Amino acid sequence: MSIRDNVFKQMNPQATATASLKVSKGLAYWLRHQINAILALRKQSFIQTVEKNYVFALYITFIGLVYIFNSLHAERQAATVDRLLKENKELKSEYMTLNAKLSLRHRQSEVLGAADSVGLHLLNEPPFKLTGKK
Length: 134
Known about the structure:
2 domains, mainly alpha
């Protein structure tokens, strides 16, 4: 005897038909039970349904809050990344400008011009070594 037959006998102890008839009656009973459960849910108010399933409602609420937090966090992160990329681009262009100005100031002609304004000039004679008495 199968489990299905045992379940069917527990639900319908009067049933004495053959196995195929038992299965068809069990299926009909199961379908009727499911339809009655759906109709009962439709008759209940929303509040009664939530009261019976408050754990599931809390779970769905929690998942919704996590979803909202995650989307806001992702938007905030994307804005931060955009801001940092713009700042990086500005700093890179500033670096290039300052590097070009610095390389221009290190040219010999620029150094000579700045030295002449202070009073220094380029020697035409080679340097000589100072010697002292020991």
